[in-house]
Amino acid sequence: MAGDDRQRWDARWAARAKTYEPEANPLLIRYQEQLQGGTALDLACGVGQNALWLAGQGYHVTGVDISPVALARARAEAQARGLVVEFVEADLDTYPLPEKAFDVVAVFRFLERKLFPAIEAALRPGGWLFYQTYNVRRLESRPDMPREKLLEVGELARAFPALDIVESGDAGQLSHLVCRQR
Questions:
Q1: Which of these, 40, 87, 94, 126, could form a disulfide with 59 (CB 3.0-4.6 Å)?
Q2: For residue range 110-146, what is the model confidence (pLDDT) as tens digits?
């Protein structure tokens, strides 16, 4: 399974233009003033735009992704910007998340529900979770997407019961959640 995922994502990243991806997700940028540095984890980081933004904000960042093609681009961009990010090639189905290790956890356009408890546990007290991914409305434009990889509308707001919700929503095809560990 991991090999299939790796090949699929490598093919996607290889097919995309060689130029760097857009800036960090606007959801992260919107909370820039509240983010005070520390440690951060970017899950399914792809080419690392969110990890690099967090590193630029003074965080010690770990970015995890299954695609060596994407991670090579992320490492090259980190070097070009003079930023240090630990990029880890790993399958998130088996990658162990350390408990109470991160001040920020960012998850964008990735969904694996069985990771929700580990993501919650990875946050330090007062830590921030930024999560945004597609919901079932995505089927309107991409009917071929597997439904199990899409959130139900309102699901993300219920997924992390021990965290305090700062912001959540289900606008269009994307659902998002910003919350903090107590």
A1: 40
A2: 999 999 999 999 999 999 999 999 999 999 999 999 9
CATH number reported for the structural domain that contains residue 62 in this entry: 3.40.50.150
**Helices marked H in the chain:** 2-15, 26-30, 49-56, 68-81, 116-122, 155-158
First to last CA, the chain: 36
How would you classify the pairing of strands 174-181 and 123-134?
A: antiparallel
Give the span between the Cα atoms of 64 and 71, in whole angstroms: 8
146: three-class secondary structure by DSSP: coil
pTM: 0.90
Number of domains in the chain: 1
Gap between the Cα atoms of 167 and 145, Å rounded: 27
Residue at 73 is within a domain: yes
